Amino acid sequence: MNAIGKLSLLMIGFLLLAVEKPFAQSNGLVNTSQSPYAKLSGVDMGNVQWTTGFWAERFKACQDSMIPHLWSVYTDPKMGHAMQNFEIAAGLDTGAHVGPPFQDGDFYKLLEAMTAMYAINKDPKLGAELDKTIALIAKAQRADGYIHTPTLIDEHQHPDKAKAFEDRLNFETYNLGHLMTAACIHYRVTGKRTFLDIAIKATDYLYRFYKTASPELARNAICPSHYMGVVEMYRTTHDQKYLELAKNLIDIRGLMKDGTDDNQDRIPFRQQTAAMGHAVRANYLYAGAADVFAETGDTTLTHTLNLVWNDVVNRKMYITGGCGALYDGASPDGTSYLLKDVQEIHQAYGRDYQLPNFTAHNETCASVGNVLWNWRMLQLTGDAKYADIMELTLYNGMLSGISLSGTKYLYTNPLSVSDDLPFQQRWSKDRVGYIGYSDCCPPNVVRTIAELSNYVYSLSDKGLYFNLYGGNNLSTTLKNGKAVKIAEQTDYPWNGDIRFTVNEAPETAFSMFFRMPGWCTDAKLIVNGKPTSIKLIPGEYAELNAQWKAGDKIELNLAMPVTMVEANPLLEETRNQIAVKRGPVVYCIESAGIPKDAKVLGLSLSSHIDLKPEKIVIDHSNLVGLSGTASMQNTVWKNRLYQTVPAKDAGTVNIQLIPYFAWGNRGHVEMETWIPVSR
Ligand SMILES: [Zn+2]
Question: 526 alpha carbon to ligand 1 midpoint, in Å?
Answer without folding.
Answer: 42
